[in-house]
UniProtKB/TrEMBL annotation:
<feature type="domain" description="4Fe-4S">
    <location>
        <begin position="1"/>
        <end position="61"/>
    </location>
</feature>
<dbReference type="InterPro" id="IPR007202">
    <property type="entry name" value="4Fe-4S_dom"/>
</dbReference>
<dbReference type="Pfam" id="PF04060">
    <property type="entry name" value="FeS"/>
</dbReference>
<dbReference type="InterPro" id="IPR024264">
    <property type="entry name" value="DUF3786"/>
</dbReference>
<keyword id="KW-0004">4Fe-4S</keyword>
<keyword id="KW-0411">Iron-sulfur</keyword>
<keyword id="KW-0408">Iron</keyword>
<dbReference type="GO" id="GO:0051539">
    <property type="term" value="F:4 iron, 4 sulfur cluster binding"/>
</dbReference>
<protein>
    <submittedName>
        <fullName>Putative Fe-S cluster</fullName>
    </submittedName>
</protein>
<dbReference type="Pfam" id="PF12654">
    <property type="entry name" value="DUF3786"/>
</dbReference>
<keyword id="KW-0479">Metal-binding</keyword>
<dbReference type="GO" id="GO:0046872">
    <property type="term" value="F:metal ion binding"/>
</dbReference>
C-alpha cells in the first residue's frame, strides 16, 4: 500500500468500533496519533497481521529519513554483508533486509538504508539500532549484572543517569503498580527472582545481545522506594556507554507515556 497521506486513510483501515482498547477515546483519534507518529498501527488489537505488515512496509521510514544525522551510519549499515552481520549480532536476513528484535518486535533495515517496522521510529530507537549493528562485537550475554556506573565510562555520567533515568523511573513505578506486569506483557519482558533482593525484577530484551534488568524496592518501614537499572557485563562490547544511556532514557520516556495513558499523574519533567 502507498504511504498514507492523511489520518483518514489510516482511519479507513480500522473497524471504527471506538473500543478504546488501544488507549485512545476513538478510532479517529488513534488514526491521528498513528499519522503523527505518536502511536504504532500495530497497537490496534483488531487489525490483522497482514494489514499491519502492509502499513509498516508503506512507512518504510520516510520519517527517519528526515533526520540526516543518521545518514552516515545508515549508509554504513546498508553496505555491510548482512549475513555476516546477522551472525555477529543475533539478527536474521530476510531478502534484502537485516532484521533484529527490539523489545520483542521486528525492526529491519534494507540494503538501501531504509527502515521497516511497525514500532515507533524515534531517535532513541534508531541511534542505538544503528550503533549496535555497526559496533556490536557479538559477545555472549554473561548473566553478570552491572550498574551503569560500572560500565566503561559510566562512573562520571552516573549522577545524571541516576537523576534523569533511575529516579524518574522510580517515580513512575511508585504511582503505577502495574508497570512491571505491563513491561512483561507489552515488551516481552520476564520477571525473575532478583539477584539483588529487590521486590520486583524484570529483564527486558532490548536488543538481541543487550538485555536490561530493572529492579524495584518498595517503600517499607520508613525506607523510601528505590529503583536501579542493570546491564549485562557484555554491554561494554555490544552497545557502549552512549547507546546504553540512550536506551535507558528512551525506556523511561516510553514508560512515562504508558503511565500517562493509564491516567497516572507524573510530576517529573519530561525527559529529552
Amino acid at each position: 500500500m502507498a504511504r498514507p497521506e492523511n489520518a483518514m486513510e489510516i482511519f479507513r483501515l480500522l473497524n471504527k468500533s471506538n473500543c478504546r482498547e488501544c488507549g485512545e477515546k476513538t478510532c479517529l483519534a488513534f488514526a491521528g496519533a498513528v499519522f503523527q507518529g505518536r502511536r504504532a498501527i500495530g497497537e490496534c488489537p483488531h487489525l490483522s497481521p497482514r494489514v499491519i505488515e502492509r502499513f509498516a512496509d508503506a512507512r518504510s521510514l520516510a520519517d527517519a529519513r528526515s533526520d540526516d544525522s543518521f545518514d552516515e551510519p545508515r549508509n554504513q549499515v546498508a553496505a555491510l554483508d548482512f549475513q555476516q552481520a546477522a551472525t555477529r549480532i543475533g539478527g536474521r536476513v530476510q531478502g534484502n533486509r537485516l532484521t533484529l528484535k527490539i523489545l520483542g518486535k521486528d525492526f529491519s533495515i534494507d540494503d538501501k538504508g531504509d527502515f521497516h517496522t511497525d514500532i515507533h521510529m524515534l531517535p532513541w530507537v534508531i541511534g542505538p539500532f544503528l550503533g549496535y549493528v555497526l559496533d556490536c562485537r557479538g559477545r555472549e550475554v554473561s548473566g553478570e549484572w552491572l550498574s551503569f556506573r560500572e560500565l566503561r565510562g559510566g562512573a562520571e555520567r552516573y549522577p545524571l543517569f541516576r537523576k534523569r533515568i533511575e529516579e524518574a523511573m522510580r517515580q513512575i513505578a511508585d504511582r503505577y503498580p502495574d508497570l512491571f506486569s505491563d513491561m512483561a506483557h507489552l515488551f516481552r519482558g520476564r520477571q525473575i527472582d532478583s539477584p539483588f533482593d529487590s521486590d520486583v525484577s524484570v529483564i527486558l530484551p532490548v536488543l538481541p545481545l543487550v538485555p536490561i534488568m530493572i529492579c524495584y524496592w518498595q517503600a517499607d518501614e520508613g525506607m523510601d522506594s528505590d529503583l536501579l537499572i542493570f546491564f549485562d557485563r557484555s554491554a561494554d562490547d555490544n552497545i557502549g556507554i552512549d547507546n546504553a544511556y540512550t536506551l535507558a532514557a528512551g525506556l523511561t520516556q516510553m514508560f512515562e507515556k504508558l503511565a500517562l495513558r493509564h491516567g497516572v499523574p507524573i510530576d517529573h519533567p519530561h525527559l529529552n
